[in-house]
Amino acid sequence: MSAAPELVEEGAEDFVRVCRVDELPAVGVAAADINGTVVAIVHAKDGSIHAVDDTCSHANVSLSEGELDGCTLECWLHGSRFDIRTGEPSGPPATTPVNVYPVKVEGDEVFVGTTPTNS
Predict the structure, then answer these.
(1) CA distances, 62 to each of 33, 41, 59, 83 (Å)
(2) Which of 19, 48, 63, 65 has the most CB atoms within 10 Å of its CB?
């Protein structure tokens, strides 16, 4: 999935249109390139949508290829688990959080902020 060039400014934050909600898995993860940063777009079971860096802070592999369990995204390589709301790892082997990006949904369009909320 590649972000469209449309930028929406909201205060000091820029948001990029990433996709439509129906282009995401019903429950799962997809990767999107947002201005050169690959982000995992997570569609949770409760319908919420989250965005985190797609690269595991422990093993430098794609988190969007991992498993989603509730609000936890598990890296497929060594099992590091990250909270999709905060980016915090739940335990080893990862000890460093991944960046979390703000998400807003307008109608059926998904927008992701370009500045992490937890850095």
Answers:
(1) 12, 12, 9, 15
(2) 63
Distances (CA, A) of 57 to 4, 13, 51, 84, 115: 27, 24, 15, 14, 18
- Asked if 115 and 37 count as a contact pair (C-beta separation under 8 A), the reply is no
Q: How far is CA 116 from the centre of its chain?
A: 10
- Using a cut of 0.90, tell me whether the model's pTM lies above it: no
Alpha carbon distance 63, 73 (integer Å): 7
